[in-house]
Amino acid sequence: MIASALLGLVIGSFLNVVVYRLPIMMERAWRRECRAFLQLPEADDERQEPFNLMVPGSHCPHCHHAVRSYENIPVLSYLLLRGRCSQCGERISIRYPLLEVFTALISVLTVWRFGYSLETVFALIFSWSLIALSMIDFDHQLLPDSITLPLLWLGLLLSLFGFFTDSHSSILGIAAGYLSLRSVYHLFKLATGKEGMGFGDFKLLAMLGAWMGWQMLPLIILLSSVVGAVVGTLLAVFLKHGRNTPIPFGPYLAGAGWVALLFGNDLTQLYLNYAGLSH
User: What's the mean pLDDT in 159-184?
Assistant: First the structure.
C-alpha cells in the first residue's frame, strides 16, 4: 500500500506533463497534416525544437527557469518552495500537487481492491489513463485516441485470458458501448440540430466495454449520467452556465468506469438485493 502510494505520486507528476503537453502535440500534428494535405509550405512557427513528453525538460512557464531534480519531487517540492518558482517567485498552480495526491489515492484504492496480483498492474494502468483522459477532456474537451484506442485493444487482449471479463462480453461491450452513445448523438442532432457530444465519448465507452463487458455498460451510463446531471445543474445555478455552454462528458464516463471496475459487481448485487431480484 505504501509502495503504491509513492508510485502514484510519481505517476501523478508524469500525468501533469501528459495533460499539459499532449494537447499541444496533437495541435501541432494537426497543423502539419493540414499543411501537407493542402500542399502549403511549412510555417516559420512550425520550425521549432522537438516538443514531446520528454523534450524539452520541465521549466517555469513565466521565466523559463529549468526545474532542477530536487525541485521536481512530487508534493514535497511544492511545499518546500511554498508554491512558487525558486527563480522568479511566480505562483505555481496548486493543481499539480493535487493531481499527484489524487493519483496516489486512486492507486492505493486500486491496490486495496485487487491485492497483490497481476490484475492490479492492469487496473493501475487503466486508472492512470482515465485520470489523464479526464483532465485533458476537462481542459480542452478532447479525448485523445492515442490513449483511448491502445486501452481498448489492451482490454480486448486481456479478455482472452479472463481478466475482468471474457472475450465474448468484451467484443459485445465494444460494439454496444460505441453504438449506444452514437445513437444518442444522432437522435439528439436530429431533434435539435446540434451535436450533443463528441466522438471521443463513443470511443471511451467502447473502451470501458472492452475492459468490463457489455454487462457493466448500464451501470456506467447510469452513474455518469446522474453525476453529469447533478454537476451540470450546480454549474447552471452557482456559476450561471448557460444551456449552450458545453460540459465535457468524458470525466463522468471515466469516473463511472473506474467505479464499475472496482465495485461494479458489488453495486449490481446491492441493487438486485434491494429490488428483490436476486436469488
Answer: 94
Rounded distance between C-alpha atoms, residue 216 and residue 224, angstroms: 12
Q: 217-240: per-residue pLDDT in tens?
A: 999 999 998 888 887 777 777 766
The verdict on whether omega for the bond into residue 50 sits within 30 degrees of 0, i.e. cis, is no
Specify whether the CB–CB gap between 209 and 173 falls below 8 A. Answer: yes
Residue 260's alpha-carbon distances to 21, 199, 222, in angstroms, are 29, 22, 11
The reported pTM is: 0.91
* Contact yes or no for 223/271 (Cβ under 8 A): no
Phi, psi angle pair for 91, to nearest 5° = -70, 140
Q: Quick one: which of 124, 146, 142 has its CA closest to 134? A: 142
List beta partners, residue 91: 84
Q: How far apart are CA 217 and CA 254, in angstroms?
A: 12
Mean pLDDT of 89-111: 93
Distance from C-alpha of 77 to C-alpha of 223, rounded to nearest angstrom: 37
